[in-house]
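Colleagues,

Please find the record for the two-part complex below.
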Amino acid sequence: MTMTEILNHPLTQIVLGMVLILAFVGVNGLILVWMERKVVGFIQRRPGPYEVGPQGILQSLVDGVKLIAKQLVTPRGADRFLFWLGPMLSVTPVVVCFLPIPFSPALTTMDVNLGLLLILAFSGINVLALCAAGWGSNNKYALIGAARAVSQSVAYEIPLLLSVLCIAFQTGSLSLSAIAADQSRGLLSWNLWVQPLAFVIFFISATAETNRAPFDLPEAESELTAGFHTEYSGMGFGLFFLAEYTYMIVVCSVATVLFLGAYDGPFLPGPWWFVLKVYALILALMWFRWTFPRVRFDQLLNLCWKWLIPLGLVNLLATALVLKLVE
Amino acid sequence: MPGLAKTVKGLWSLLVGLGVTGVEFFRPQLTVHYPRKEVDNLATYRGHIDLVAREDDPLTPRCIVCRKCVAACPSGCIDIESRLVGAAPSGDARELSLAPGLVVSGTRAAPPPREKIRREVAAFRLNYNLCSLCGLCVQTCPVQSLAFSREAYLCGSSRSDFEFELLERLRRRAAAGRQQAA
């Protein structure tokens, strides 16, 4: 095999893509933690991290080093296997979630024609990870946190799917590349204008799926110490933390592809537009977190079952009807 | 439909909240980066107490050693040593001996001296480790000889760092002030 053949081989591309994705995930984790702390600082009129590196940019790197250097402690009575399965299971599927995301037509690791399904399926594993962590910790707070995580994720997966389905109906494809290509004809071709309700439902459900405030009940530090990761220290906690921020990128990337025209934009090359949109959405998520107080659990489920699911269903039916009529 | 109106109102309140935090995000920060900058609003700051000097003599405190502050202090962190000044430098004028041999009937004891006997501070020790900054000593001082210092950035590594000799501090301050004037 010549060098070009090796480079063009799909396996090489996937391995290369995975390495790049891991690097992207790691660097983004550091940047997002720093960004989150900066945002909360600015909202509370203080500078946030400031001392380590210019504007404190190296703070999260130093924190990461601290977490890695810490001893791994398994609490007494914990289920060793489940306890350590949790953090690993929560980070690993993330890499797969990035495979079908089209950063640009050329910069897609693997153009799967069921990309949307792949992401939804693999991001569902995170719930299992939280459940394993909470169950294996031998700690009542962790267990309650895990129970909350499961019921919350199960509930919010439905409106999420309903809103995603609208786009799938409209484009006639589950491939993210196809959905992105469908919106690459300028600002007005973005799905956001056609499906604003689906976007709102998707974004709310995504906030709940990533366990972000105001829906951070599985963690709920004021009620459950730290929820499912109460017993974790060092890199066990670090992996959960990394996974949380990476899932933020995943859901915001999916939102960008589905509603905001993916890599579509003037002047700059596509990938820059993509990252810019993703970061704008993440900024909105952070803005939500530091504005809204945590909802009560019944409020959380009421919002889902009484509002988002009916609205999502109506939206889906209306989409189907309009599509049928247009045909 | 009161339910719908309530929902719309609720959604609107979410936007209002986002507006509030959004505006705060862009307003200037209030943090003063300490080692590089210091705050300048210490006029009302309550540091540990300090002695106030007399107007005519910056080396002498206004204190008259009435010890009201010692009595008022709930934590017992003030300790004053004094010495007598004035008419009887050696202090024997006050030595009223009631030994029966001295006071013979029909005679009189020597009258007390005309000049007032004045006390002055020999040492004014403050154990700041115990102080709760209640300010009763400052409030109770009849001659306003005590005031709060403005030392907001006081720090030390041992207990003895917070045991102060206030008279010494006063003199050091006076010397520093004179140096500055010169």
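Chain A has a mean pLDDT of 86.

Comments are welcome before we finalize the supplementary table.
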